[in-house]
Amino acid sequence: MQEDSFFEAISNHYKNELPFVVYCKPFSFDIMACLQKDNTLYKINDFSESGFVFSPFDFRKDSILIPFSRSQQIKLSSELNTHGLDKQYDIPVETNKEQHLQLVQKALDCIKNKEFEKLVVSREEIITIPAIDVIRTLKRLLINYNGAFVYCWFHPQVGLWLGASPESLIKIKGNQFETMALAGTQPYSGTLDVKWSNKDREEQQIVSRYIKEVMEPYLNNIIISESKTVKAGKLIHLRTDISAQIPDGEHMINKLILQLHPTPAVCGMPKLKAIQFIIDNESYNREFYTGFLGELNKEAKINERLNQEESNEDLVENFDTTTDLYVNLRCMQIRDNQARLFVGGGITIASDPELEWEETVHKAKTMKSVIAF
């Protein structure tokens, strides 16, 4: 499909107030869209469903599904035309610094009192600007954040969300399982050869250790990589890759999601107590920020040779299902002429409130830089 036709189909769907999602996986130039054919609000029952899932931070609330079976699926496989997409916009500066510093200090005091090992606290920025051009904003995300999971999701009963997440929650293909631990943030300054503070490395180890502990009862052959520095737009992070095998014959996506989400990278430890601290102390409702989203039980075609020893043997088509979910970070919600941006950071005993504030400022800039109107 041609670029103009692809985005025209999405614009028409949006004007007609029909649900849709547009997304591009990290380091891919294949932009996918699922255009739901009705305006029904489909909800997840047990994660055995097939479609694009959009889940909130609070796992007790409903996860929304755009079913593949009830959607038109289209794809754009080409680099985008960047003409006119490099304009810089003057976005207001956030001023709720003191409120966030108080929240960070409260979290830090709780950690020092040994109530928590780690807490992740966040804030929202509400930006009032002229009517936002959703398609141009999406294109700017796609162009600037090819290394992230970029998306635009809409349902008339829920709202419009866009984002560019650097963090995978779960990848399952066959019996192969993958996830990652992501922690630490610095502005990108032209090199990945940087020093990380003890606080950042400690935070990374907390997340990695937690994932290993909760996955061990369910998975085999867990392998944890060395941590490395990765780039996501104008920021860099510490990342550890984790892989394992799902026992033969086991279908446990629901169990794995419930164990992992929300991870200490977006919540804290101990998990349930940290969730309650966030709900009680953050001055807003996270909704789908730090939830997760992506392809759930998508049927994938696998070509296999009838005889591996005969290279000229005809191929046969087999099918498997894949699940590819991402944590909903670096995101915003669009409502009329307002953009709600969400940013946060992990608090450990080594945290400094002023530095934590600066980290949220850097994260907010990544989203402000792509808003078009």
Describe this structure in words.
Strands 3, 4, 5, 10, 11, 12, 13, 14, 16 and 17 form a ten-stranded antiparallel β-sheet that branches. About 2% of the residues have low confidence. With 373 residues, the protein is of the alpha+beta class. The radius of gyration is 21 Å and the shape is globular. The protein has one domain: Anthranilate synthase, CATH 3.60.120. It is built from seven helices and 19 strands.
In a nutshell, what does this entry contain?
By secondary structure, this protein is an alpha+beta fold.
Features:
373 residues; alpha+beta; Anthranilate synthase; 10-stranded antiparallel β-sheet; 9-stranded antiparallel β-sheet; 37% strand
List the helices and strands and how they pair.
Layout: H1 3-15, E1 20-24, E2 30-36, E3 42-43, E4 51-55, E5 64-67, E6 71-77, H2 97-112, E7 118-128, H3 134-144, E8 149-155, E9 159-165, E10 168-173, E11 176-187, H4 198-215, E12 220-224, E13 228-232, E14 235-245, H5 253-260, E15 268-269, H6 271-281, E16 292-305, E17 315-327, E18 331-335, E19 338-347, H7 353-368
Antiparallel strand pairs: 1-2, 1-8, 2-6, 3-5, 4-5, 4-16, 7-15, 7-19, 8-9, 9-18, 10-11, 10-17, 11-14, 12-14, 13-14, 16-17, 18-19
